[in-house]
Amino acid sequence: MCYNRIMAKFVWTEEYSVGIPSIDEQHRHFFDIANRVVELAEKEDIGREELTTSLGELGNYAFYHFSTEEGYFSKFNYEGAAIHISAHNNYRRQMEDYLGRVREENDLKSLAVVVANFSGNWLLGHILEMDKKYTVFFKESGII
What we know:
By secondary structure, this protein is mostly helical.
């Protein structure tokens, strides 16, 4: 696997809309933070503190966003909540692992590329495969 290939920035399109304005706005912001990690990965020299700060921001925002979605799941008794929360927990664990690796890793550029690729691809796939399912549920329930 090549860890030095940086992916293109993530571009929000209506394809990613879940029909809930607050969630769509959070997804757009998540894209912005992931794109800052892509920009960081494009730099020649990356400082440990700089990468730690960027990964912390990405992880913290993801945790905030997940808590918003999970609050809706609980409030509206979403039947797919357990599987969805499991996917969130997998992301949480992976980000914690990356943050731990920043302290020990010598090749910070490669780690930044891995994190940028993981986060962006995870988010794109998660919205289209998981979040779109709650859109259908919320519409059928008359919530949106």
